[in-house]
Design a protein that fits this description.
43% of the residues lie in helices and 28% in strands. By secondary structure, the protein is of the alpha+beta class. A four-stranded mixed beta sheet has the order 2-1-3-4. Helix 1 crosses helix 3. The longest helix has 17 residues. It starts with a strand and ends with a helix.
Length: 89
């Protein structure tokens, strides 16, 4: 499974989420891609990322299976990731 994160340097919630996302990526051994909201405009448009950051997209076989918008706790992130992983099996 792949975790794609859209964030920006000026976004306080994005900075807070960095550590949480890194823990999740490492714990569940997810492929990880990060895009900058201001630099990667083509990807922001392709994934239809709105104005609220960060946006985390979970993909399985190049298909979006979950979208997380805004700041979430580590516990909330784990619950979402485990729910998606459980559905895979």
């Amino acid at each position: 499974m792949k975790l794609i994160k859209f964030s920006a340097l000026w976004c306080p919630s994005c900075l807070i989420m960095n550590t949480r996302v890194n823990k999740i990526v490492n714990e569940y051994k997810l492929e990880y891609i990060e895009y900058d909201y201001d630099v990667d405009a083509n990807k922001v448009e392709e994934y239809k990322v709105g104005d609220i950051l960060p946006v985390i997209i979970l993909e399985n076989n190049n298909k979006e299976v979950a979208r997380i918008i805004g700041e979430k706790s580590e516990k909330e992130l784990k619950k979402i990731v485990e729910g998606v992983l459980y559905e895979e099996n």
